């Protein structure tokens, strides 16, 4: 039976549907003067071309099922059945739900193409299986397994907040819409008898602290351990990158120098300079575009580190991150091993204010020393001690010592079994800061002295 008018675009031969005024492919105007009794655009053809069939295929050529009418309402039971097992094969005479009415006529073509591609894959799998390299796919002639649209249960990640919605590739919950916690929001690590914990806290939107733990053997074979903690300066650009770069660079520097026999104090000094160079390099990264509408300054962070080995305890720092010494014998006095590079410390050192007055000032936490390209000349502070008994070194950022300022306060919140359970001790200290308010990122490392023997 012939058709009463054109069923394809005159420009590109695109199949048309009833009511189309423009071609969905080339955009050509389809509204033309119509003969009496005829519409401007005739109804679609009564057949859908097979894959590979030319537009002008003879009427005797095999034809597929007719395309669905986009104006036809699909019964609810058919919509509900979509996605169910076996729903990919439509029931005889049932129209499939078009994705877009303009391309409804292409669904038959797309289905045929998919079936042809699946048959080709199965044939290839059969050939590979015959050669001993089978993939477990069905051989030709077997019905292909239903396509699985949902990821397997063991790879389905649920929202960490509502525990019911799946996650989008961007890290948002499909149910509650919330962004998922970043990996750095809470970090814990234990190595060779030392441990560190870092937490975002309750007020900051990200964790700008970072830590690094290293273990090595000295030239005489005795063990040595290193814990490094860095606090990103929030007012700087990319402080989280600065803290990570500094801690990892210093860790690698000490891992290389101490086994060679470098004195720990010199090794710590060189490690601080290596950390400074790593942070400086972030400011010169040419891959980062400069935003002229936002104020940008160089990435910056503070630094504190402890190295234990050979009967010595070495501390290095720049900024206001601290190290405390807590003897195992709690009747002996604890001590703070660092002096802050801060406005408050300068006021006290110059006898301009008492410690209480300076700490109460809103400028108390303004740092006067840091690592970064816009810092003054970096002058690492390094000291070496030879403790007369066993103890624990607590290395931390101000997120912790804001809630345990003095050495006595730090000793009172450090668990007594910290030499044997350093991770548990670090967790307890972070919990103390969070329970106190958690106004800042909190990072702490617990390092027993002497260095634990390597198992």
TrEMBL record:
Q: Which residues form a coiled coil?
A: none
Where does the record place Low complexity bias? 48-62, 81-98, 137-147
Question: What region holds the PPM-type phosphatase domain?
Answer: 193-449
- Family matches, as Gene3D superfamilies: PPM-type phosphatase domain (3.60.40.10)
Q: Which Pfam families match?
A: PP2C_2 (PF13672)
- Give the highest taxon in the source lineage: Bacteria
* Stretches the record annotates as Disordered: 35-98, 122-152
The protein's matches in CDD domains, at most eight in alphabetical order, are given as: PP2Cc (cd00143)
> What's the protein called, per UniProt?
Protein phosphatase
> Which species?
Streptomyces chattanoogensis
């Amino acid at each position: 039976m012939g058709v009463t008018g054109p069923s394809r675009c005159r420009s590109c031969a695109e199949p048309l549907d009833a009511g189309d005024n423009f071609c969905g492919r080339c955009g050509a105007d389809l509204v033309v003067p119509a003969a009496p009794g005829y519409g401007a655009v005739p109804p679609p053809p009564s057949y859908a071309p097979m894959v590979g069939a030319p537009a002008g295929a003879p009427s005797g050529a095999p034809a597929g099922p007719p395309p669905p009418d986009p104006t036809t309402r699909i019964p609810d039971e058919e919509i509900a059945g979509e996605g169910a097992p076996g729903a990919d094969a439509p029931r005889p005479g049932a129209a499939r739900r078009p994705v877009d009415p303009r391309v409804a006529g292409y669904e038959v073509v797309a289905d045929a193409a998919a079936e042809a591609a699946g048959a080709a894959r199965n044939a290839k799998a059969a050939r590979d299986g015959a050669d001993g390299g089978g993939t477990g796919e069905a051989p030709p002639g077997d019905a292909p397994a239903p396509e699985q649209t949902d990821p397997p249960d063991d790879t389905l990640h649920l929202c960490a907040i509502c525990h019911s919605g799946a996650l989008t590739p961007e890290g948002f919950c499909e149910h509650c819409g919330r962004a998922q916690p970043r990996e750095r929001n809470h970090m814990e690590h234990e190595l060779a008898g030392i441990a560190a914990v870092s937490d975002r806290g309750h007020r900051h939107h990200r964790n700008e602290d970072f830590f690094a733990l290293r273990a090595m053997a000295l030239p005489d074979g005795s063990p040595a351990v290193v814990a490094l903690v860095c606090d990103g300066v929030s007012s700087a650009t990319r402080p989280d990158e600065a803290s990570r770069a500094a801690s990892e660079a210093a860790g690698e520097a000490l891992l290389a120098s101490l086994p060679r026999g470098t004195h720990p104090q010199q090794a710590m000094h060189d490690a601080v300079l290596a950390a400074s160079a790593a942070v400086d390099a972030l400011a010169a990264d040419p891959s980062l575009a400069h935003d002229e509408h936002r104020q940008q300054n160089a990435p910056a962070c503070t630094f504190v580190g402890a190295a234990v080995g050979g009967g010595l305890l070495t501390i290095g720092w720049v900024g206001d991150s601290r190290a405390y010494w807590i003897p195992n014998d709690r009747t002996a006095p604890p001590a703070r091993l660092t002096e802050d590079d801060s406005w408050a410390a300068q006021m006290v050192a110059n006898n301009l204010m008492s410690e209480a007055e300076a700490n109460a000032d809103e400028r108390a936490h303004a740092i006067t020393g840091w690592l970064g390209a816009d810092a003054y000349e970096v002058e690492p502070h390094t000291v070496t001690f030879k403790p007369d008994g066993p103890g624990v070194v607590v290395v931390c950022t101000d997120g912790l010592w804001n809630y345990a300022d003095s050495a006595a306060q730090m000793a009172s919140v450090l668990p007594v079994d910290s030499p044997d359970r350093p991770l548990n001790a670090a967790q307890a200290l972070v919990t103390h800061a969070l329970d106190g308010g958690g106004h800042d990122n909190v990072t702490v490392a617990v390092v027993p002295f002497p260095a634990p023997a390597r198992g």
